[in-house]
Specification:
This is Abnormal cell migration protein 18-like fibronectin type I domain-containing protein. By secondary structure, the protein is mainly β. It folds into three domains: 72 residues, no CATH class; 57 residues, no CATH class; 71 residues, no CATH class. The protein has no helices and 25 strands.
Length: 223
Amino acid sequence: MCAHEGKQYTNGTTFISQGSFRMKCVTFKNLTSTLEVVSCITPAGIEIPIGSQLEEGDKVYECTSGNVTLKSTPGQNGKCRGTYSVGQEWIEDSFKLICEPYGKVSLKSCFSKEGTEIPLGEARRVPAGYAMECVMVNGNVALQTAKNFDCETGTGETKKIGETWNEGNFVRRCAHYGVSSIIGCYVDGVGSIGLNQNMTSGDLLYMCINQNDQFKFRTLRAQ
């Protein structure tokens, strides 16, 4: 005989305990008895063999082996973190997350401090003028400056790192992080002028000035 919660059970008898487990009374030849868990019971009353699982409603129930327990995780249509439905997106800190089936939360994009959205695995130029990328580094998401990123001219053209172009009276070169730097000046029909250098053409003097990273181009009458 097996005793459980004030009741007696004969050898081979089964019963449901705590609403979640089917127990069985086992009596040995020496007349000693023990109770064994033979299966788990879902909230809907469906029996699950030990070591298997069953999807019921918006949850997946698993009857674990060893120290038998009934575990539940979100099902295919289960909510993420108990709040968000499948396909729903939300912003958390500097990241946009999306709820996928079975309660999986995935990262969709990052946000710069200025509010620029950068999809995972891509880079975008931020209002400060440089580029940032949203990437996975050693299993963790990172929002960092993007070293290898094309530059954009004032007319919207794309330039690769190292390429130069004329923009107004200035010569620019595409550097890392999608940032272009002024490397000189330019005058139609005259040519390029180095920084802090002058050039005379006819009766005109052209000056290309860089003072504390403040760039100026001036045209004066030559004397």
